Amino acid sequence: MGDAIEKSLRDIRGKRDVSFFDLYSIDQVSDTDLGLIFEIARGFRSAKTAKLTLCKGNTQVNCFFEPSTRTQASFDLSAKHLGMDTTNVGGGSSSAKKGESFIDTVETLDAYNARTLVIRSSEAGVAEIAARHVAASVLNAGDGWHEHPTQGLLDALTMLDCIQADTLAGKTVLIVGDVVHSRVFGSLVRVLIRLQATIRIAAPITLLPAEVEQFGVTLFTDVEKALVGTDFVYTLRVQEERGAKGFIPTLREYSKTFGISEWRLDLAAKDAILMHPGPVIRDIDVHSALVSRHPQSRILTQVENGMAIRKALLWLLCERFDGKTKTFERI
Q1: Is the alpha carbon torsion for 272, 277, 283, 288 positive or negative?
Q2: What is the Cα–Cα distance from 149 to 252, expressed in whole angstroms?
Q3: Which of 170, 200, 238, 242 could be stapled to 181 by a disulfide with Cβ–Cβ 3.0 to 4.6 Å?
C-alpha cells in the first residue's frame, strides 16, 4: 500500500519544486508554490497515517522554545510518517539556559547534519536568522507576534476545500479576537489577500495593530454587524501569555462582547464555517457547543490539514532537486 501511495504522490509532484529552501514567512511562497503544496497536501491527507519512506534517512530537530501541542505534535508525527528520525529540543532543556546564544544552539544542531529544523520562539525573526546560519531547511513554527506560515497554509487549504474552489474570490472571512498579539493573523491575512478573499476584522480597538487597514481589511468594533454575510468566521484567543489581558477589562466582558455563540454564528451567512487555530479557550473565544461537534465547525479539520500541509512541506524541502545543503555557505 505504501508503495502505491508514494508513486501517486510522486506523480502529483512530477519534476516540480517549491521556490524556497526555508519557510519563515508566507511571503516566500509564490502562487505556483501554493497550488503545488495544496495538491500534495491533499494526497497526504488521503494517505492518513500510512508509514512512508519518502524522507527516509533524514533527521528533523524540533526546536520548541515555547509551549505547543498541535504544532509540535504535528511536525513530529509528520516527519515520522515520512520515515524521518526526530528529536526534540525545548527551552528548558537547551544550553540556552546556560547562556549559550541562539545562533550557537542552532549551529550545533546543524552540525549533526539535520535535514530540517523546526523552530518556535517567543521572539520575532528567530527562524529567519537561523536560516542564514544553517545548512538545514528551517521551518517557522511561530515566532513572537510575527508569523506562523504553516498555520496560514493549513487554514487556506481548509477554506478552499470547504467551497471546492481554487480561490476565495467572492467570499468574506471575518477574523475575530486578539489580532495585535497574533502571529497566526500575520500569516493568514497575507495568504487570504493572495486568494482574493474579502477580509473583515472584529476586535476591541486595544487589540488591533496600528495601521492594520493597510492590509486592505475592514474594521469592526461591533462583532454582530461584522458577522452579517460572512462566509468564514475565524476566531482568535486572547493571548494572556503575551500580555493581552491588560488590553481588555476582563475575559468575561470580552466574551460577552466578542465571543462567538450559536446565536451569533447564526448572524453569518447560511452554513458559515467556524474556524480557530487552537488552543480554544472554551466559552471565551467560542461557545463550547460550537468547538468540535457542531456541523459548521472545522476546528478539528484544521488539525488534520495541519499534518497534511507539514508532510507536504517536509517532503518538498527534503527532496528539493537542488537542495539547500548543496548551495549553502556557512556565514
Answers
A1: positive
A2: 31
A3: 242
